[in-house]
Amino acid sequence: MITKEDKVYLLLTKIPKGKVTTYGRIAKKLSISAREVGRILSRNKHPEKFPCYKVVRSDGSLGGYTIGNRNDSSTLKVKRRKLISDGVKFNKDKVDKSCII
């Protein structure tokens, strides 16, 4: 049986290089809440396989990023570096709207 978590992780693998999506868009696609998407992503045990760093808030701000049990300003810096490395463009502190799918 495919779980909600499986469905969220599968959607992460479909986000192209240089693009991100939002917690809300994943939530709408799966008929769950954006907060639930965030909780699922915070428990991602395989971030190299399921790139949860490619999910941001609907306004383009980064939201959260959990590494181990930490979710703070230092982990957000890691998320931003990963996005930049992936080709995502920023407009000040937010992801450029052209990169959000």
Please give a quick description of this structure.
With 101 residues, the protein is mainly α.
Task: Explain what this protein looks like in three dimensions.
With 101 residues, the protein is mainly alpha-helical. The protein has one domain (4-99): Winged helix-like DNA-binding domain superfamily/Winged helix DNA-binding domain (Arc Repressor Mutant, subunit A, Orthogonal Bundle), CATH 1.10.10. The chain is 39% helix and 8% strand. It has helices at residues 4-12, 23-30, 34-42, 73-85, and strands spanning 21-22, 55-56, 90-91, 94-95. A two-stranded parallel sheet has the order 1-2. A hairpin with a 2-residue loop joins strand 3 (90-91) and strand 4. Helix 2 crosses helix 3. It is globular. It starts with a helix and ends in a 6-residue tail after the last strand. 23% of the residues are buried.
